[in-house]
Structure formats: C-alpha cells, structure tokens
Amino acid sequence: MEQVQWITDFGVAEEILRHKGFREVTFKGLVPLVGPVIVTLEGPVHRERRLIGSKLFTALRLKTAETSFVAEITRREVAEASRQSQPDLVRLSYSVMAQTAGRMVGLDGLGSPENAAEAVYLLSALVSGTQARQEGKPVYTRRAARDELRKRFIDPAIARRRNLLNLYGAGRLSVGELPSDLITLLLLHTHQAERKWDTRQIAGEVAFYAVAAIDTTASLAPHLFHHLYHYCQANPVQENRLTDPRFLRNAAAEALRLHPAIPTIFRQATTSLKLKSGLEFAENQTAGIYVKEANRDASIFGPYPEEFRPDRIIQAKTRRAGLSFGGGSHLCLGRELAVGTPELAQTSFENDDSPNETELFGVAAMLVKELFAQGARPDPGQAVPELSPFARDVYHTYPLNFQQFD
Q: Is residue 406 very low, low, confident or very high in pLDDT (cuts 50, 70, 90)?
C-alpha cells in the first residue's frame, strides 16, 4: 500500500481536487453501510446522480426555502430556546438543520424538536457508531442506527411518495402537487428513466444527503456566533452590522474557511501522474488534503489568514470558504444552502441595494442573525469549552444566555 502524500498548499490541493486523474475516496467506508451514494461514485453514474441532486439546489428552490420554511423554523426554534432554562447553541443549530434538511430531502415528521433530535442522534450514530452517545438513549452500532433511521423516518417517507407518484401516474395529481424534495426527485428520475431503484438504494442516498446537509451548517453556526460575538466585543462600532444579512453571510464563509466541517479530504490517483507543481503520484497512491491548513494559505487569503476577518479582501479567484466544500466534480451541491451567495470572493452584491430574486444568505447567517436579534450571547455563568487541537474542530456544547446584547 502506497504511503499517503499530505498536502497543505492551497494551489496544489485545488489542482488535485479538479484533476481527472484522481478519484474521491474520503467516504469509501460508507459503501458497505449505505451502498454507492453520490459522493462515492465516479464517471457517468456520478454525473447522473449529481444531475438529480442539482435540481434540489436551484436558486429558485433555495430562495423559496429561505423565505418560507427556513425563516419560520429559525424564528420558532430561537424563540423556544430563549424560553429554556439552559439553552445550548449546538442543540439549537442541529434542531434547526434537522428540520431544514428534513424538508429538503423529504423526511417527514421532523417538524417537532423531539423528532428532529431523534433523527440527529441516529444520523450521528450512523457516522460515528457507538461513539455517538446521549444520556437516556440506546447506544447504536452504525448498522443498527441505519436500520432504525430507515424504519423510523426514511422508508415511510419513501412509501408515502411512491403512493403520491402512483396518483400522479394515474392522472389524479399534477406534477405541481408532488412534494419538492430529494426523495420525490429520485423516484421521478427512476420512473422517467425506466430504472427501478429499490428502497435500500434510495434510503442510502437520502441518509447521506441528510448527514451532509445537517452537519456542515450545524457545526458552523456555533463558530460563527462565537467569532462574531468576540469580534464585536473588540470592535463595538461593528455591532450594528449584526442585522446586516450580507455582512453575516460573508462572516459565515470566513468562519467556515477557518473551521471546515471535513478537515481532511482524500483522493486516490487512478494512474501515475505529475502535477504542475512537480509533485508526482504513483497509481493508487492517496493524496491527503489538510483542508484547514490549505484554507490558511496567506498567498491566497492574504495577511493573518489564521484570524477571523469578516471583511477579508481576497484577490485570488476562489471561494470565500476556501476548500471547505471540496472541489472539482465532487464540489458540494448544498453549499449555497449553508452560506448563501455569492460564493466567489470577487463577486459581491455589497454595493447593490436593490432586491435580488436569487440572492441567498444561507441558514448559518439566518440563524445567527435571529440569535443576536433576540439578545443571545455566550452564557457568562458557563464557560464555553475550549476546542481540542487533537479532535474534530466542532463544539459539543455552547451554553447561551438571552438578554440585550452589549
């Protein structure tokens, strides 16, 4: 087995992610668990899955989601948290994202915080197995979590949509009356392509989308809130910008650049090759990309790349969040759901005060905007736990206090 070649240079990392001579292997361990899903596929079958998924994340669908159910979920959940005796931002952000992802992928029954919390726990166990523990809940292996997730949430949702498609096929429903979610898109595609996917195949794809949609934004929100609170404490003149969704959107991308949800991406060379940098890879050799380090490349992100600077000026033609959404043919489809638009560092709506019908702000910015509007701040009576340099860069708890921001 070839030794992993580790990459921290942004330019080299970006070239590898775009290079057709590498295959995606970060998530290959998922295949025995959920089958071949979009992130583990290559070639024509991957392009087919990506085409289906891209229909879920059109600008119009995302704008409709932001202005309707995302806004409603965010307001309701923040209001509920403000009434709790011990509100916690991690718990809140996962609840918001579970309900949002449930609407996007088609998991019914996640409209209550209780069901959303149960789904989040099962999805966590699907990824982490017995390491995902919660007081008062059973400990699941990854396979047991998958089976329970399917039984409780996924399979019933698929069955309901199959019934609706039968009504559509019989002319009793119009296409506009069908749900606008991933499960429906998958079923419609297989029907139109005259290809039968069984429930197991669809369930695997849905489970992966749910994990990906929830985890990135839910782990980002506490980082964004923490950075902005302390940024405004150090720069009080900036406090009035906490109501500006465009400022918050830029801040969200900056926070994600510093704290990528997936700290390491792996690609495997499909043949012997040499990069523009002169770096060589043997066939089947793996490149390990340290995303967090590459995202702090001063030649790309300017001076003090390790600092949170929401107004950072980036001259390079890259995304504000760096490589946090991957790149190449496996670039994350749901990135605009998390951090909105514009993504590219050299694109901006900042000097345009007119409404833009496709401009997106992202769930992370929307949640944090609502938190500050309701007077949230870190609970002074409970210290926010320090992040371990040896563990994944996420908060496991973030106690909040609701009062006037000062």
A: very low
Q: In this structure, what DSSP letter does residue 385 have?
A: P
Q: Looking up tokens 């409780």, which residue turns up?
A: 152
The percent of residues in the chain predicted with pLDDT above 90, rounded, is: 78
Distances (CA, A) of 176 to 38, 165, 348, 365: 26, 12, 34, 30
Chain centroid offset of residue 14 CA: 20
Domains annotated on the chain, with CATH: 5-368 (1.10.630.10)
**Does the predicted model carry a pTM greater than 0.85?**
yes
Q: Which amino acid is at 352?
A: D
Residue 78's alpha-carbon distances to 65, 87, 93, 336, 399, in angstroms, are 18, 9, 9, 22, 13
As a whole number of angstroms, the distance between CA 238 and CA 251 comes to: 12
Would you place residue 1 in the very low, low, confident or very high pLDDT band (cuts 50, 70, 90)?
very low
Backbone region of residue 125 per phi and psi (left: phi > 0; alpha: psi in -120 to 50; beta: other values): alpha
Burial state string for 115-144 with b = 16 or more CB within 10 A and e = fewer than 16: bbbbbbbbbbbbbebeebeeeeeeebebeb
- Please name the residues in contact with 192: beta carbons below 8 A apart, sequence gap of 6 or more: none
164 three-class SS: helix
Q: Are the CB atoms for 267 and 294 separated by under 8 Å?
A: no
Tokens 């070649």 found at: 5
The packing angle between helices 89-105 and 71-82, to 10°, is 150
Q: How far apart are CA 280 and CA 87, in angstroms?
A: 51
